[in-house]
Amino acid sequence: MPTIRFEQVEKSYGAVRVLPPLDLALDDGEFTVLVGPSGCGKSTTLRILAGLEELSGGEIFFDEKPISDLASKERDLAMVFQDYALYPHMNIAKNMSFALRLNKTPKAEIETKVRRVADMLNIGHLLERKPAELSGGQRQRVAMGRALVRDASTFLFDEPLSNLDAKLRGKMRTELAEMRDTLDKNMVYVTHDQIEAMTLGDRIVVMSEGVIQQQGTPEELFKAPANKFVAGFIGSPTMNFLNAELTSKKDVLFAKGDGFELPLPKPLAKSLNGYAEKTVTLGIRPSSFSSDTKIGTPIDLRLVVSEYLGAQSTLVTRCGDAEVLVEHDSSSPVRTGSQLTFGVRTDELMVFDKNTELRL
Amino acid sequence: MTTASKLNRLTPYMFLAPAVLLLAVALLYPIGYMVYASFLDWRPSQYISEAEFVGFRNYVNLWNDEAFLESFGVTLKFAAVVVTLEMLLGVGLALLLDRNLRGLAALRTIFILPMMIAPIVVGLMWRYMYHPTVGIFNRTLKSWGLEPIPWLSDGTWSFIAVVIADVWQWTPFIFILSLAALQSLPQSALEAAELDGATGWQKIWHIKLPLMMPVLIVALLLRLIDAFKVLEVVLVMTNGGPGLSTEILSLRIFRTAQEFQELGVAAAMSNYLLILLMLLTTIMFVYNKAVENRAARLRAAAEEA
Question: Using CB atoms and an 8 Å cut-off, which of residues 86-115 of chain B contact chain A?
Answer without folding.
Answer: none
